[in-house]
Amino acid sequence: MHGQDPQTCIFCRVIAGDIDHDVCVAVSGGFVAFPAKQQRPRNHGHMLLVPAVHVTTLQDLPTDLATGWLTATTALSNAVRSAFHATGVTIRMNLGPPGQDIAHLHTHVIPRHPGDELPTTRSQNVPLADRIAITHRLRPHLDAHRATGDPGALP
């Protein structure tokens, strides 16, 4: 796995703004989200939810962040559905090799649409400008969830 050390972890560098500046958005409970660099064309808006501090695996997640993870996952899932007009979402975690390539705990939140063929469609690289646009499109929907105080409320 890549990024065992927080100093070299690509997700820690994104969160710090060292690379891919302007793609992160605060969610809640110590978690941030940013668009996946690889996305399937019919699932535009695929986000990664990560702890703002370096946590390698689910087993390493402190108890106080574990509760925040569920709240943040709910808020991000509903914001993604709303922002990208999805009928549902797929939430996915890969824990350890071979599925987890980056050694920073992360949850995939993928917008779903009828006929999107998620399991069979190949991912494509999403340019930085497009990922920034995805973040800007998502942000007001997350803000609406925070304003209601209910992570499950749809704006």
Automatic annotation (TrEMBL):
EC number: 2.1.1.-
InterPro entries found in the cross-reference section: AP-4-A_phosphorylase, HIT-like, HIT-like_sf
Any one Gene Ontology molecular-function term assigned to this protein's record: methyltransferase activity
Highest taxon of the lineage: Bacteria
Residue interval(s) of motif Histidine triad motif: 104-108
Classification via Pfam families: HIT
GO process terms (BP): methylation
Keyword field: Methyltransferase, Transferase
Domain HIT: 10-119
Name of the molecule in the record: HIT family protein
Protein source organism: Hamadaea flava
